[in-house]
Prior knowledge:
Blueprint: H1 14-27, H2 39-46, H3 50-62, E1 66-68, E2 74-76, H4 81-105, H5 108-119, H6 130-145, H7 150-171, H8 177-195, H9 199-211, H10 214-232
Antiparallel strand pairs: 1-2
Helix pairs in contact: 1-3, 4-7, 4-8, 4-9, 4-10, 5-6, 5-8, 6-7, 7-10, 8-9
Amino acid sequence: MAECPGDDRAFMTKGDVAYARIRTLILSGELAAGAVLPQAALARTIGMSTTPLREALRRLKQEGLVELDAHRDARVRPLDATEARDLLELRSALDPLAASLAAHRRTDADLAEIAAALAGLEALTTHPSAAQLESHHRFHAAVHRASHNALLVQTLDGLWVKTDRYRRHALEVGRSEADRHARATEHRLVLEAVRDRDAEAAAERMRRHVETSLGARSADRLADEGAGTDRSTT
């Protein structure tokens, strides 16, 4: 990787590079949930030895994205109904808080950033690109930053990234035009509440948005699939 002055990548170790690359492959869906990760082949794919690769896999295990067994075999952690629920519960509490704080604390520059992100939103397809998902992250991250609570921003950013695998899972069954329009309307209403400094409305509109989100749909789908499996084994 070329080193660029002022570019943080110039200070990344090989383990950092391997971690970033594999994490991207997992979150993008290129490495599917449950996929086995043959370490020698994966090291060749990312162009480095197995030593930094193993370091990266240990970090990804700590994040809950990879499983490692005693024999050092690795696989992408399967999607999990409990994790999907946990992520949804946290976002249902923290996203409305961020929106409420943003309505109180936002600056004109914050509002301009949120509006620009709203204008750049791309509709999510059945197999969304990284750019499409990032456009939605950009909008929500702009709202989070407008809260001017650094710990809250950091926490929500981590939750957002971990939820991307579940968003992709929800999109596998497609979305109606009415559903896409409803989500777009919710985004606009959040912006308007933050603009008007209406903290109560901002929190409520964000709460509704999370409750109807792709993460919520994935949690419901995984719960239904789990219930179906339980019935079939009784």
